[in-house]
Design goal:
The protein is of the alpha/beta class and 278 residues long. It has a single domain, classed as Thiamin diphosphate (ThDP)-binding fold, Pyr/PP domains (Rossmann fold, 3-Layer(aba) Sandwich). It has ten helices and seven strands. The strands form two sheets. Strands 1-2-3-7-6 form a five-stranded parallel sheet, with helices on both faces. Strands 4-5 form a two-stranded antiparallel sheet. A hairpin with a 2-residue loop joins strand 4 and strand 5. Helix 1 runs antiparallel to helix 10, helix 3 runs parallel beside helix 4 and helix 5 runs parallel beside helix 6. It starts with a helix and ends in a 9-residue tail after the last helix. The protein binds thiamine diphosphate and magnesium ion. Thiamine diphosphate binds next to helix 2 and strand 4.
Length: 278
């Protein structure tokens, strides 16, 4: 089994190559969350990539709520065995199963909900977590949300609902990169102290550096240990948009633009091939 850090590096290569290949897509948030996806899919989650079971009974589920970061999701799914790695080359092409934003219509293994219209994933995850309780299924439900995404109101209904209904088999994570589509989250619609807001709504809140693999794995494992105690869990992950490609780091401009040929070469020079390119 390759080291988690090497897997994350290959996922970052996949992201920049996929987005460059079709000159569209979202590299910034994808790169920032590459370590999280690696920790989750290659270490923390109890899941069965193949054969893919849409219901996911007796396995952990993951819902990507900020669907625009599909490149990192698709790479992590392919690299962990959900579908063939060469299919990454079809990203955003006509009739591909790898649509710009994930859909269920194309039946891509690993995708259990369409996302891209921000703000819906937490509600879906709460429903799935409650269904697991009804089915006496002891596995967990994980999600990822963008910080800009939390500016969407539906989240706050879900954040209120989950503690009230003691949804304690749910671990949601927030990508706190401080950036969103048009600028910093502070400039667009300041979130203030997000952790304090979750706490006052009744959640257990953990914090981690989302680009430090050891800290990430430790925090996710700690969160698992806190499930089943009557409260939903939220992990605040501090990340850097564009992490791993120096000229993309910390700039909201890389939210949703593709690198040029020259920029691709610069990016790949910083990301050694570890598992083999698609
Ligand atoms: C309901 C809804 N409103 C607006 C958008 C447009 N939109 C796409 S991404 C984005 C910014 C999201 O910011 P964040 O979640 O922080 O993502 P990051 O830029 O960090 O990847 C917006 C406003 C959308 N997709 N859905
Ligand atoms: Mg953001």
């Amino acid at each position: 089994m390759p080291q988690l850090k090497d897997i994350a590096t290959q996922i970052r290569r996949d992201i920049v190559r996929m987005v460059h290949g079709v000159q569209s897509g979202h590299p910034g948030g994808s790169l920032g969350c590459a370590d999280f996806f690696t920790a989750l899919y290659f270490k923390v989650m109890d899941h069965k990539p193949a054969p893919f079971d849409m219901d996911g009974k007796n396995q952990d589920l993951f819902f990507l709520s900020n669907g625009h970061i599909s490149p990192v999701f698709y790479s992590a799914l392919a690299r962990s065995g959900y579908f063939p790695v060469p299919e990454l080359s079809t990203f955003r092409k006509l009739n591909s199963r790898l649509q710009g934003h994930p859909t269920t219509h194309e039946h891509l293994p690993g995708v259990r909900v369409a996302s891209g219209s921000l703000g819906q994933g937490m509600s879906v995850a709460i429903g799935a977590a409650l269904a697991k309780k009804l089915n006496n299924d002891k596995n967990l439900v994980y999600t990822l949300h963008g910080d800009g995404e939390l500016e969407e109101g539906q989240n706050w209904e879900a954040i209120m609902f989950a503690p009230h209904h003691k949804v304690d088999n749910l671990i949601i994570t927030v990508d706190l990169n401080g950036q969103q589509i048009d600028g910093t989250t502070d400039d667009v619609a300041g979130l203030g102290d997000v952790a304090a807001k979750f706490e006052v709504f009744g959640w257990l809140v953990l914090h981690t550096d989302g680009n430090d693999m050891d800290a990430l794995v430790a925090t996710l494992e700690k969160a698992k240990g806190l499930t089943g105690q009557g409260k939903p869990i939220a992990i605040m992950m501090k990340t850097v948009m564009g992490q791993g490609v120096d000229f993309m780091e910390g700039h909201h401009e890389w939210h949703g633009i593709a690198p040029s040929d020259e920029q691709l070469a610069k990016a790949l020079a910083q990301l050694p091939e570890t598992l083999g390119d698609y």
